[in-house]
Amino acid sequence: MTKKEIVKTISEEIGLTQLKTKEIVQKTFDAIVETLVTERRIELRNFGVFEVKERAARKARNPRTGARVDVPAKFVVTFKPGKEMEERVKHLDQTSAAETEAPVAYSPPSISPPQTSPPPISPAPQNPPPSDPFGASDS
Predict the structure, then answer these.
(1) Which CATH number fits domain 3-95: 4.10.520.10, 3.30.450.20, 3.40.50.970, 3.30.1130.10?
(2) pLDDT given for residue 123 in this prediction
């Protein structure tokens, strides 16, 4: 999905013009980037956490020539999804390929009440007859 598609969807849902919605969406993205630059972390409840981390310098290999290359340290943005997002994405494994072609609204699985019937009764264990500890037999 592109930013243009996001703007179109939001503008249709809330009844604003696409121009005004685009401005709001862009301001939101700009605020996220600015917060990451200044504070290096932004936590959006029920969504996730964006964080700036420093990736250490390392040695790599050029796959074409095989030569060793020094890769300098750099800052990268990481994202850790919130619980709600992880749960919703986890359920993607359970959908078939046909369902993924057309977007479907997520509905959490229903939780059935606990069973109130008593547990099944297992048969009494069969005890073998006692054996003679000295190995003597009756015959």
Answers:
(1) 4.10.520.10
(2) 58
pLDDT in tens, 96-137: 444 655 555 555 555 555 555 555 565 555 655 556 555 555
Give the count of beta carbons closer than 10 Å to the beta carbon of residue 52.
15
Lowest mean pLDDT across 73-77, 78-82, 134-138: 134-138
